Amino acid sequence: MAGVASSFQRPDHDHVHCVAEALSKAEALCRARGARLTPIRRKVLELLWQRHEPFGAYELLKALDREEARVMPPTVYRALEFLQAQGLVHRIEVRNAYVGCAQPGRPHAGQFLICKECGVTAEIQSANVDAALLDAADALDFKVESQTVEITGICPHCRDEKI
Amino acid sequence: MAGVASSFQRPDHDHVHCVAEALSKAEALCRARGARLTPIRRKVLELLWQRHEPFGAYELLKALDREEARVMPPTVYRALEFLQAQGLVHRIEVRNAYVGCAQPGRPHAGQFLICKECGVTAEIQSANVDAALLDAADALDFKVESQTVEITGICPHCRDEKI
DNA sequence: TTTTGCAATGTTATATTATAACAAAAGGGA
DNA sequence: TCCCTTTTGTTATAATATAACATTGCAAAA
């Protein structure tokens, strides 16, 4: 085992801190890159961080509507596109939904553990998984460009609850 | 490296044989299980096998229209649902599309190498990838139920062409 | 300071993917 | 044959995503 960088937070963790830290990291990164974290983009990122469960695009849309002027789909999709390009957000393919990136800064394809009970999604980065994938691809002479690794199951908290 | 069970076929491989074998395996499996491989289901499976690139549901719909009476979306989605339940077809999440399963018979979540140039998709089953994923999940006390592993990149044939 | 150009957002419309709900038909065993 | 269950047909609509073009606004060049 190597390189697990995020984990399932306890339900009572300091979530305000999560959000604040994610936003300040994002601001720093964008500033450093000359990328513009505009109000809409910032708001979308903030919403995504308000829970550890992926948000669908239209769910974000509704949430934005409640807070701001009426927002149309392209606005949300553009914000998501920007945030993904900056490595601040990942798309969860099996859910058609989006989560804040737990380790922004360096480009990476996330690996995700998704709880089918509560929806909470943990981003991991296992060097072993990476290595195994590269090996397998290599064996077929396949040149890897990006990976989608999404594991569905039961998170520790939901399992505890079921006992 | 262990357990790679499919690979990128040469463009000139005996494709008729691919299709015939997949269909006869499917028939045998369904017969053994008392599952009904009806004409529509069989046709969908056959279409999927007619190439090694995933088919979108509406693409299947068009293909069916050309051959049979007019077919509606639920018909295709039901056939796909059945075929997936029987382990004869996999869904490729990053494409919203479907491919025939290279190793039907035992239940498994496929691992896929998807060529971004030609779309050809190879199903693999790397024991190392499985083990690494289980390890990583275990470390977070996460109980795995299913996996989605989709690697995008360049297949050997497309890479050769580019030289 | 004004201009200009590009990046971001607004707006309308529509494409693409997927499912709900109910009706009809077809197959298979009592 | 009858009945029950599975499968398919049909209509409508939900959910996700993007195209295309107009407008705004920021920021650097002139």
Give the % helix of chain A: 40-55%
Estimate the strand proportion of chain A: 15-25%
| Pair of chains with the largest interface and how many residues each contributes | A-B, 40 and 40 residues
Rg of chain A, nearest Å: 17 Å
The total count of helices of chain A amounts to: 6
How many beta-strand elements of chain A?
Answer: 5
Multimeric status of the protein: homodimer
Order of helices and strands of chain A: HHHHEEEEHEH
Biggest sheet strand order of chain A reads: 4-3-5
Span of the ends, CA to CA of chain A: 28 Å
Molecular shape of chain A: globular
pLDDT averaged residue by residue of chain A: 92
Q: Quickly give the structural class of chain A.
A: alpha+beta
- Residue ranges of chain A: pLDDT <50 for 5 or more in a row? 1-5
**Main beta sheet of chain A: strand number and arrangement?**
3 strands, mixed
Describe the SSE topology:
The structure is a homodimer of 163-residue chains.
Chain A: H1 15-33, H2 39-49, H3 57-67, H4 73-85, E1 89-92, E2 97-100, E3 111-115, E4 121-124, H5 127-139, E5 143-154, H6 156-161
Parallel strand pairs in A: 3-5
Antiparallel strand pairs in A: 1-2, 3-4
Helix pairs in contact in A: 1-2, 2-4, 3-4
The first copy, chain A, binds a DNA duplex (30 and 30 nucleotides) through helix 4.
